[in-house]
Amino acid sequence: MLKQLETLEKEAIQEIEQAESLKVLNDLRVKYLGKKGPMTEIMKQMGKLSNEEKPLVGAKANEVRTEISTKIKYKQEGLEEAALMKQLESESIDVTLPGTKIPTGTTHLLTQVIDELTDMFVGMGYRIAEGPEVELDYYNFEALNLPKGHPARDMQDSFYITENTLLRTQTSPVQARTMENHDFKNGPIKIICPGKVYRRDNDDATHSHQFTQIEGLVVGENITFADLKGTLTVLAKHMFGEDREIRLRPSFFPFTEPSVEMDISCFACGGEGCRTCKGTGWIEILGSGLVHPRVLEMSGIDSSKYSGFAFGLGPERVAMLKYGVDDIRHLYTNDLRFSKQFIAKEMGER
């Protein structure tokens, strides 16, 4: 039986050394060390041996089992290392090759214009104020000197949800809410109100039922028309060029008195008259004026002590004029061919 064990050991070691895969090696483990393998069979026959032979055969059997297990372990480690090296070679990456360019997005043209405007006003000491898009009729109209039945309401055909709630037609309600809650112990009011507004309008090249506005409000002591004019001049030069001039024309808005429309000298022809300015040399940009005393009083502000100015402009109109966009619908239809023409400055050239 000792000779049988020696022969078994030689055969097992030879086959283990010739194994070329982990599967073959695992099959050899089962073959020689499994419950139905030759080692198990030899151990079952030890009961027939004499007392003198049993220790010798038992010791040899343990020696052979240990040797076979050790050989299998070393062979397994070698095969695993070889498999790993083969995998690394097949999956190697040449880090000196140029990378694949991944296309990245940028901000929408309308967002760029809004960001540019808000950055300018924040730099001038304004803060950004926001309010609900579903607004009360009181804040959207009545607090702005537009009582029920006022003819100016017809100019803003509205989306009413209930008798007293609607989708806001302007961002002016944010101004009314701000004035109502402001404590002048904390300083004057100086805010801009960017946001979406809604009006029942037929969509065409220059109109949309949903668009954006940026309105500004300053209220404090000794605020004059000169402050408004200075602010609008800075706005015009920042957005359309340092050589822009402004022109203020009398107008009417229920919440300001006096009210004016602001025009800028045409940036396309320099004021000589062209298609962009319809031959006038001027382009209408926004409406503005001094805050109506009645609006101040309705917000609980003493109009004999405090005064202010307000203005409102449409970022869509600014974008269309500044970048030559001929249809407002281009700003909303998500056509990538259009959007890719306007890459945000911070993203650089592509």
TrEMBL record:
Q: How is the cofactor bound?
A: Binds 2 magnesium ions per tetramer.
Tell where it localizes: Cytoplasm
Question: Principal place where this protein is found?
Answer: cytoplasm
Q: Which GO terms describe its molecular function?
A: ATP binding; catalytic activity, acting on a protein; magnesium ion binding; phenylalanine-tRNA ligase activity; transferase activity; tRNA binding
Q: Where on the tree of life does the source sit, at the highest rank? A: Bacteria
Residue positions annotated to bind Mg(2+) are E257
According to its UniProt record, which protein family does this protein belong to? Belongs to the class-II aminoacyl-tRNA synthetase family. Phe-tRNA synthetase alpha subunit type 1 subfamily.
The entry's protein name is Phenylalanine--tRNA ligase alpha subunit
Which species is this UniProt entry from?
Listeria aquatica FSL S10-1188
Which gene name does the record give? Answer: pheS
